């Protein structure tokens, strides 16, 4: 889901807060309840594995909180309308229509986004595994990832996260300033949508390989139609990132 870009002046690569800090990391701005991002994250992991780049390149997941940009909950009707369309592109990512009562639907992803960032203090792997597990918990398992205990249960199941350390980070809010800084770095159209990928040399790709339009109304009213889909873009991006090492 996109926000409208602006004509903001470009920022020099060496000072651009959107870029990863090192060439072996790829900055990925996403929200956890964005279906386009669910496709992108699945493709990033699978492409990296296929190219033999696990442990060589890392994904630095950064917050693109749709609820802050849009000043409202990411509405269930809009999310539901995307599942069959986006799910057909990458069925193995894990998808299911929400089965619980409406009042159990996640109202915010900010605590989960904070958790993903907090896990970076443990390792890139911990953050990556938590991010992917939270996406699957929401999209495939219908779990309310707004809730502290769900986030910690998902973290425990990864086997990659120190859960007491993560719980302390959530309880003290230690990751919150970084998440809000990521949001501010994305404002004014500088990050176009969830997902938007940035490499260390300034190469970027918004919603890589996919273009879409909406029929019979916008998000929450109509439904998306995929105009183009080029999964090979991920191989191009990761190969280019590996060439920066």
From TrEMBL:
Coiled-coil intervals, chain numbering:
none
The regions listed as transmembrane in this protein's record are none
One Pfam family named in its UniProt record: DSBA
Among SUPFAM superfamilies, the record links this protein to: Thioredoxin-like
Task: Cite the DSBA-like thioredoxin domain residue spans from the record.
Answer: 25-201
Domain of life, per lineage? Bacteria
The UniProt entry, under InterPro entries, shows: DSBA-like_thioredoxin_dom (IPR001853), Thioredoxin-like_sf (IPR036249)
What's this protein's name?
A: DsbA family protein
Q: Please give the organism.
A: Streptantibioticus rubrisoli
């Amino acid at each position: 889901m996109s926000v409208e870009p602006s004509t903001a002046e470009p920022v020099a690569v060496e000072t651009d807060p959107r870029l990863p800090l090192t060439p072996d990391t790829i900055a990925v701005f996403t929200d956890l309840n964005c279906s386009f991002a669910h496709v992108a994250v699945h493709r990033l992991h699978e492409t990296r594995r296929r190219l033999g780049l696990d442990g060589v390149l890392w994904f630095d997941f950064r917050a693109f909180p749709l609820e802050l940009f849009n000043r409202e909950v990411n509405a269930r009707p809009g999310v539901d309308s995307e599942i069959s369309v986006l799910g057909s592109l990458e069925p193995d990512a894990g998808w299911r229509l929400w089965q619980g009562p409406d009042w159990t639907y996640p109202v915010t992803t900010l605590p989960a986004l904070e958790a993903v960032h907090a896990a970076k203090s443990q390792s890139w792997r911990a953050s990556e595994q938590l991010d992917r597990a939270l996406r699957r918990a929401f999209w495939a398992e219908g779990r309310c990832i707004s809730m502290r205990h769900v986030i910690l249960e998902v973290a425990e199941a990864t086997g990659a996260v120190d859960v007491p350390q993560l719980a302390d980070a959530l309880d003290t809010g230690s990751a919150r300033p970084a998440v809000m800084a990521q949001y501010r770095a994305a404002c004014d159209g500088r990050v176009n949508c969830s997902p938007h990928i940035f490499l260390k040399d300034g190469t970027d790709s918004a919603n890589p390989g996919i273009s879409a339009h909406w029929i019979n109304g916008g998000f929450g009213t109509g439904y998306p139609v995929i105009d183009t889909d080029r999964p090979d873009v991920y191989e191009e991006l990761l190969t280019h990132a590996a060439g920066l090492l």
